[in-house]
């Protein structure tokens, strides 16, 4: 079954097929990570929301985390301090977790209030000079980003402290508070095939525009 799914996935992006949700979307995150086992590592950036660009608006963007001090075995979002104007970058971090191979999750957001611009690599899975495979699709399903990241060469890493697995960039479109939600999240160990590490707590937050 894995081979069949791999054949319909291009190396650095998801297929531009019809939108899916519910159980099919949850299955998609698992298949996405498994597909990355055989996919080459992808470059940074990408997945931008078409038509979003131009000069900064008068709005000032920020991010408020649900959990500003995450504990061990926690995936949590926090603000990148370099954010400015109407654009905010959000770290998705993993804290104090041993023997990690990869992760897959989805980020749901209000497309009327915020636009997804793209992503940059995190440091968590790149320890030891590894070149992980990144698949981040923010265009196939409006208001939803599907993320899959896996280390290459069959190796795992142990996360000490909080380290970013990926950085997601958003632009606020209007004043208000717009929650981000982490859904269908799994962190995988290095078994063959990879199995979920349990328990993992997940915390997101909200983008604000003022």
Overview of this protein structure:
By secondary structure, the protein is mainly β. The protein has one domain (2-209): Immunoglobulin-like. The protein contains 2 helices and 11 strands; from the N terminus they run ααβββββββββββ. It has helices at 2-7, 22-36; strands at residues 61-65, 74-79, 87-100, 102-109, 114-121, 133-137, 144-150, 157-172, 176-188, 201-203, 205-209. A 6-stranded antiparallel beta sheet has the order 1-11-9-4-7-6. The chain has a 5-stranded mixed beta sheet with strand order 5-8-3-2-10, with no helix packed on it. A hairpin with a 6-residue loop joins strand 6 and strand 7. Residues 1-29 and 37-55 have low confidence and may be disordered.
CATH architectural name: Sandwich
> What's the CATH first level?
Mainly Beta
The assigned structural class equals mainly beta
Distance between the termini: 48 Å
Number of strands: 11
Low-confidence stretches: 1-29, 37-55
Q: What overall geometry do the principal axes of the alpha carbons give?
A: elongated
Topology (elements, then pairings):
Elements: H1 2-7, H2 22-36, E1 61-65, E2 74-79, E3 87-100, E4 102-109, E5 114-121, E6 133-137, E7 144-150, E8 157-172, E9 176-188, E10 201-203, E11 205-209
In a nutshell, what does this entry contain?
This protein is 10% helix and 43% strand.
